[in-house]
Amino acid sequence: MNNGGAEAAIAPVGGSQPLEWKFSQVFGERTAGEEVQEVDIISAIEFDRSGDHLATGDRGGRVVLFERTDTRDHVGHQRDLERMDYPINRHPEFRYKTEFQSHEPEFDYLKSLEIEEKINKIRWCQSANGALFLLSTNDKTIKFWKVQEKKVKKVCDMNMDSTKAMGNGPIVGSNISTSSKQYIANGGCTSNEFSFPTGGFSSLHLPVVVTSHETNLMARCRRIYAHAHDYHINSISNNSDGETFISADDLRINLWNLEISNQSFNIVDVKPANMEDLTEVITSAEFHPTHCNMLAYSSSKGSIRLIDMRQSALCDTHSKLFEEQEAPGSRSFFTEIIASISDIKFAKDGRHILSRDYMTLKLWDINMDSGPVATFQVHEYLRPKLCDLYENDSIFDKFECCLSGDGLRLATGSYSNLFRVFGCSEGSTEATTLEASKNPMSKRSR
């Protein structure tokens, strides 16, 4: 979505009970006319695979985690749930869990370039032993975080138990003295200049640390993956093997092992020997949800390439190429510009890929490379205004896309606080426009 505000909109979903939509680019209640600090604006958001946790990143380099709470009080016995032949109708509720500072502003002295702390992407990793793991990245540096509950250690007393101290016998209340210096192995010595204070141990103020039953969420950075990209990172994606992930910039895709931060493998490189021969750049990349050897990446020329990493170490050839053929006589000055794909997503079934270009959403079947199986017009009313959009550079704006968990709906953003929802099941004609505006009852359908 583009050009957002912090207001609410209500719109029916699927013709059922009206659902309140609240759109906000920052956290916390804001009074009318209150200025929003740029560092507080949300720049990335991601659900984990279970849908029970939500992570957001902002322009200030912070990551905030939320936990779903509406399911805790409604979980019944498995047998009771199996007998239910209707879905439970309740709205999800997420509550604040913790937050931490992921990135700080940096400066590249070699290129005299300031690297802002803004979080561009967040990706959840597989959880283990009650701990949450996630990747976060800004333009240049990726970090691997572990979030886990730790028992709180407290200082309960500043003196040792005097009775225990007295049990030490003659040391208490006496000084250590020797008639001659005793030399030790490392060259030092013990002498009468080292003595305990009068009163023994009980007069020393020593902290006694105990582990309480209270727990606190702690975020720890386990790995930092840096200095591997010459250009801004536009994508990170976890592999289904739980051990590796990829990061992509305009010209290269690197493969990382989560446990090795000082080495990566360059698996895709589209940089030509002469940069004047550059015709396209990488815009998005993502691993297949189940096949750990497959990934897809999109380009600014409107193509999607499916890669099989088993073919070669450097994936300079693709196993499949997905492109839409131009209709005869339809080419114009803006054709290549609006064909540039800004985002791709695999469906959970791994069979389909969703792509977003400037004007449309396209759904592709990986077994059919002749063309998309469905095309959805996002804002066709802007086509006559492409010249104006080119003049003010809006035609180069990038939009993201997503699929619902059940794979039956697609969503993407537009201008003027609008986003579009389409049904993608067979025979579906659903096409809804939702708006976040100052009128909470407003709804537009196109």
From TrEMBL:
GO terms for molecular function: protein phosphatase regulator activity. It comes from the Eukaryota. Keywords: Repeat, WD repeat. Belongs to the phosphatase 2A regulatory subunit B family. PANTHER family: PROTEIN PHOSPHATASE PP2A REGULATORY SUBUNIT B. The B regulatory subunit may modulate substrate selectivity and catalytic activity, and may also direct the localization of the catalytic enzyme to a particular subcellular compartment. This is Serine/threonine-protein phosphatase 2A 55 kDa regulatory subunit B. It comes from Theobroma cacao.
